[in-house]
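Renewal narrative, Specific Aim 1. Our central claim is that a sequence can be written position by position from structural information alone. The example that follows is taken directly from our test logs and has not been curated for this report. It begins with the structure tokens describing the chain, in the order in which they were read.
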């Protein structure tokens, strides 16, 4: 009787060991598969419905643009060809969200400071007051690196049209708006090297910024 109990205990032990080994093997495979397939959706519409497979509907891309940067130089989509870039909309006299947004983007700049494939682009939503010299002063006060992060000004109508129609930047979804309706959003967008929107983040939240940094890494592996 004692011997039978001993064999039963051994059988239970071996069965448990085998189950643990199988569980570890399958779990490891699942993690590896998940990591190898990690990717970001494409956003083609203003409601930011994620599209996970190529060819699911018309692919939305950012329209060509050209504005003036903080050093008074011409800068546009041609200079961003083949690059991953982060976009936000701000104004230098903003007392509330913009300083937080800019500070958080500073951590993105730091993370990719030595990576030539990643840039940041900030569009002024009050370009009539944010001249190049005003943007330069703002850039200097926030330690913005010129070759890494461009602040853009230009035609208000062109900026607002680009923001609303290309970047889906306005949070008043469904309303008919024009350049006289003020645009202000804390959203940050991630654009891939093919000019497609690949991510949307709340720029005032640190956790969202950390997610953004991780997902830039995902896009770099995709490229």
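The sequence written for that structure reads:
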């Amino acid at each position: 009787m004692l011997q039978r109990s001993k064999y039963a205990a051994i059988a239970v032990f071996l069965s448990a060991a085998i189950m643990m080994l199988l569980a570890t093997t399958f779990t490891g495979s699942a993690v590896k598969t998940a990591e190898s397939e990690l990717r970001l959706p494409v956003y083609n519409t203003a409601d930011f419905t994620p599209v996970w497979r190529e060819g699911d509907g018309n692919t939305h891309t950012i329209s060509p643009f050209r504005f003036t940067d903080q050093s008074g130089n011409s800068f546009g989509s041609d200079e961003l060809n083949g690059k991953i870039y982060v976009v936000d909309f701000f104004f230098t006299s903003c007392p509330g969200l913009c300083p937080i947004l800019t500070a958080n983007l500073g951590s993105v700049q730091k993370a990719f400071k030595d990576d030539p494939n990643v840039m940041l682009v900030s569009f002024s939503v009050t370009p009539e007051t944010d001249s190049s010299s005003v943007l330069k002063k703002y850039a200097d006060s926030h330690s913005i690196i010129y070759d890494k992060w461009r602040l853009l000004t230009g035609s208000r109508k062109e900026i607002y049209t680009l923001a609303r129609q290309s970047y889906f930047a306005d949070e008043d979804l469904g309303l008919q708006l024009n350049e006289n309706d003020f645009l202000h959003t804390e959203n940050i967008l991630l654009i891939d090297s093919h000019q497609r929107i690949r991510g949307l983040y709340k720029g005032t939240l640190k956790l969202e910024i950390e997610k953004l940094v991780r997902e830039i890494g995902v896009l770099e592996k995709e490229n």
